[in-house]
Each structure stands twice: as structure tokens, then as C-alpha cells.
């Protein structure tokens, strides 16, 4: 639902903030000093925009969103309820972020990225255009995701690891090493190629007495 332009009487808007005539500021929302709210923005109830931050045209902040100071959020984007975006982060155009996410300081999220609910993106992370981050992911500090990459639900990407362009990481994987670019699927804890990970999973289901025999056969078989 799109609200009519205007500032709700209960909202707190700094005198130095620049609010477009076509923007909407909802009940109990807060807009800090020198913040810029562009045309047709929708700042919903109890959302806040920190000092010196800018929100691009046609962007919508759902109820309870918290945007820190010196944040740039592009146009035609959507930020879900109760999501937190901390200071000095830059987010591009046409981005969608789900509910109850956490975006740390100095994070860069480029155009067209999709982030599902309950994701945690820690300080210094970089997400390239059109990447997809599914729910309950944790990207630790200084992680880098390539363009059109996918990290499925409940993945952990450890600090400073890089996932290349077009790569896909399956659900509940732990990425403890860099993943090269390419249309390959990676999975497991720790992560490996999906084929290798499935082989290890299958072996763990076998009775212990068969393990040594299987391992010997694996040594004799041609390499993948």
C-alpha cells in the first residue's frame, strides 16, 4: 500500500533534512540531520534514517527499519521490517532486503542484489550485482560475493572468503576457502564441490566396517 505524500505529525524530522514533496514519512519515523529523502520515498512507521544519509527515489523502508549515519541507499529499493543498516554503508539501486536482516558498517551492496529474511552481512562485506543471499545466511567480515552468485539458506561464509561470479553454494554449507568463478555448485561443511560432498555424505551413511574397503576402491578409481 502506498501512502499519500506528507509527513505524519508524530514523525521527528530534522530541520536540516531534505524531504521531497512527493515523499511520505510515517508515524513516529525519525529523519536525522542533513538526511536526503528523494522523490516518492516511503519511510514507514517507526523507521529511522540517520544523519547525512540519503535514500533514493521510489525506495521504501518498511516499519522499524533503522538506517545509520552516512549511508547511501539507491533508488527503487525495498528494505524489510526491522532490518538494521549500520553506518557508512553503500547500497545500490533495485535492491531488495528482507525482514530482520543486519547490514554492518562499511558494507557495499551493488545493484540488483536480493537478500532474504534474517541474513547477517558483517562489516566490510562486498556483494556484486545481481547476487542472491537466501535466508539465515551469515557473511562474516570482509567477505566478497561475485555477480550472479547464490548462497542458499543457512550458509556461513567465513571471514575474508571470496565467492566467484556465477557460483552457487548449497544450503547449510560452511565456506572456509575461496570459491572460483563458474557455474558450479558447492556444498558441505566444510565446503567442497557438490559431487565430492555428496560422496562424503554417502560414505558416512555406510557401516564402519565398509569404510576401508570403499576408501581403497576410491584410490584405485580414476580421478574426477
Task: Please supply descriptive tags for the structure shown above.
about 220 residues, mainly beta, UDP N-Acetylglucosamine Acyltransferase, domain 1, twelve-stranded mixed beta sheet, ten-stranded parallel beta sheet, 2 helices, 31 strands, about 10% helix, elongated
Q: What is the annotated CATH architecture? A: 3 Solenoid
Beta-strand content bin = 25-35%
Uncertain parts: none
- What average pLDDT do the residues reach? 92
- Count the beta strands: 31
From the alpha carbons, calculate the radius of gyration and give it in angstroms: 22 Å
Placed side by side, the strands forming the largest sheet appear as: 1-4-7-10-13-16-19-22-25-28-30-31
Tell me the major beta sheet. Answer: 12 strands, mixed
- Strand-pairing-aware structural class: mainly beta
- The CATH C-level class name: Mainly Beta
CATH H level: which superfamily? Hexapeptide repeat proteins
CATH topology annotation: UDP N-Acetylglucosamine Acyltransferase, domain 1
The helical percent reads under 10%
> Helix count, per DSSP?
2
- End-to-end separation in angstroms reads 54 Å
| Total domain modules | 1
Name the overall outline: elongated
Overview of the structural elements:
With 224 residues, the chain is mainly β. The chain has one domain (6-193): Hexapeptide repeat proteins (UDP N-Acetylglucosamine Acyltransferase, domain 1, 3 Solenoid), CATH 2.160.10. The protein has 2 helices and 31 strands. The chain has helices at 194-205, 211-220; strands at 6-7, 12-13, 18-19, 24-25, 30-31, 36-37, 42-43, 48-49, 54-55, 60-61, 66-67, 72-73, 78-79, 84-85, 90-91, 96-97, 102-103, 108-109, 114-115, 120-121, 126-127, 132-133, 138-139, 144-145, 150-151, 156-157, 162-163, 168-169, 174-175, 185-187, 192-193. A 12-stranded mixed beta sheet has the order 1-4-7-10-13-16-19-22-25-28-30-31, with helices on one face. Strands 2-5-8-11-14-17-20-23-26-29 form a 10-stranded parallel beta sheet, with no helix packed on it. Strand 30 and strand 31 (192-193) form a beta hairpin. It is elongated and about 75 Å long. The model has no long low-confidence stretch (mean pLDDT 92).
Amino acid at each position: 500500500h502506498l501512502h499519500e505524500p506528507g509527513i505524519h505529525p508524530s514523525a521527528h524530522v530534522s530541520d536540516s533534512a531534505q524531504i521531497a514533496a512527493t515523499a511520505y514519512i510515517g508515524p513516529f519515523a525519525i529523519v536525522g540531520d542533513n538526511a536526503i529523502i528523494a522523490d516518492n520515498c516511503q519511510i514507514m512507521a517507526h523507521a529511522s534514517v540517520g544523519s547525512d544519509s540519503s535514500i533514493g527515489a521510489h525506495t521504501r523502508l518498511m516499519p522499524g527499519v533503522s538506517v545509520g549515519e552516512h549511508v547511501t541507499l539507491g533508488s527503487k529499493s525495498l528494505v524489510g521490517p526491522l532490518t538494521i543498516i549500520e553506518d557508512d554503508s553503500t547500497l545500490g539501486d533495485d535492491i531488495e532486503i528482507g525482514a530482520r536482516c543486519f547490514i554492518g558498517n562499511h558494507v557495499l551492496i551493488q545493484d540488483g542484489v536480493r537478500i532474504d529474511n534474517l541474513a547477517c552481512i558483517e562489516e566490510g562485506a562486498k556483494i556484486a550485482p545481481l547476487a542472491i543471499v537466501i535466508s539465515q545466511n551469515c557473511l562474516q567480515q570482509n567477505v566478497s560475493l561475485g555477480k550472479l552468485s547464490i548462497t542458499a539458506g543457512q550458509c556461513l561464509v567465513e571471514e575474508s572468503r571470496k565467492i566467484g561470479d556465477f557460483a552457487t553454494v548449497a544450503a547449510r554449507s560452511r565456506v572456509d576457502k575461496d570459491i572460483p568463478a563458474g557455474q558450479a555448485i558447492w556444498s558441505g561443511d566444510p565446503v567442497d564441490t557438490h559431487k565430492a560432498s555428496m560422496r562424503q555424505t554417502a560414505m558416512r551413511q555406510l557401516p564402519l566396517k565398509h569404510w576401508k574397503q570403499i576408501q581403497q576402491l576410491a584410490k584405485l578409481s580414476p580421478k574426477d
